[in-house]
Amino acid sequence: MSNTPSSAYERRSYRYYVLGLLTLVYTVNFVDRQLLSILQEAIKVDLGLNDEQLGRLSLAFAVFYVVAGLPIATLADRSNRRTVITVAISAWSLMTMACGYAANFLQLSLARIGVGVGEAGCSPPAHSIISDVFPKEKRAVAFSVYSLGVNFGVFLGLVLGGVLNEVYGWRVAFVVVGAPGLLLALIVRFTIKEPTRGWADGQVVDKLAKSSVWQVVKFTASKDYLVHLSVASGLSAFGNYAVVNWAGSYFVRVHGMGTAELSLWLGVGIALFGGIGTFGTGWLCDKLGRRKVGLYMWVPAVSLLLSIPFVVVAYFSRDTQTALIAHAVLPIFTVGYLGASLAVLHSSVPNHMRATSSAILFLVINVIGMACGPYFVGLLSNYLNLSTQLGVESLPRAILILVPISCIWASIHFFIAGQKMSKGELGK
After folding, report:
1. Pairwise CA distance, residues 381 & 401, whole Å
2. Residue 104 gets which letter from DSSP?
3. Distance (Å, rounded) from C-alpha 228 to C-alpha 53?
4. I need a labelling partner for 133 at 20 to 30 A (CA). Which of 315, 393, 397, 428 fits?
5. How much is the pLDDT for 126?
6. Is 355 within 8 Å of 125 (Cβ atoms)?
7. pTM of this structure
8. Is the residue at 416 inside a domain?
9. Residue spans of beta strands (DSSP E) within 264-353
10. Nearest CA to 20 among 130, 121, 177?
11. What percent of the chain has pLDDT over 90?
């Protein structure tokens, strides 16, 4: 065994340790990101905000997240990815803590922008490392394991935020939840070794190989199936972020639930059923994709269509128990697309473009999903309330209009992507 940083990855145990640690990083990323959703009703009252302003907080986060993501990803494709991740964790953790000291909407917006800029340095370099240490035929599962960080992070963010808010208030929740990330940054810095690019594929990348963002955009845009994959992922995220961001407000306003009890229901749904959906979709795609490559895209397409009845029951039923159960099961069908999409993307682009290509995909996902999903639901909710005097019913009505449309639209693009992939070899 050669005495190089990448030689450590010859040990299966170390590969899975790194995957597990990166998944933990992504979990903390989503804990800090998701915390606002369960606290926003308390923040709304304390700072005197409205639904449009709450939606604007997500919009501001998303805009700076995607703007910062491209240059940070380009840096990760050209430098030490471990260092990029370490700095990113430290930055978003400090800014999460700063949210707890915000005295008005502007200060909270600036702190959330800081969280967004920090979190932009997480996934693109992590995706690049994962692709370098896991071969193509195992990447959908590897990316699905990493994507479990979304489920675990949302769960912890909801539960910790809900309990801390009821006991200590929303300000303490931000500070307590943000602090552990500083320790995690040190663990990443001193235990993850930077792998050689292309190691898992047996293709060592020239360290001088560089691509601009525009070159990566042109490369990915030249493949029709990647364009449809990107649009489908963004539309999938639209529905996901809309539901996750407004679920807490919906159950508090319409069903009169407290944040502590509600956070457990929502958190278990995301962690348990979302985890099943995330890992199960990745496993199914790797298994079926060996027979017909288009199934990497057709599996999430069908899954999204199956989610629509659960959305309708969750947001139409006024029986609290029925709505909660439907909402808990919903993530099985809505969260699995990401692992499959990343596996296809990273098997299609050169090694030295992987971090940047992830950032470009996340730009689409977060502009369409994170920015537009919560914002347009809030905007439509405000409009319905003012124009039809629906009151608290305006929010679920907005969700019932926008989320099913996004699921159907995303499925169409996933089906088209799978069809185009089936006509030619993946990666060509």
Report:
1. 10
2. S
3. 32
4. 428
5. 95
6. yes
7. 0.77
8. yes
9. none
10. 130
11. 48
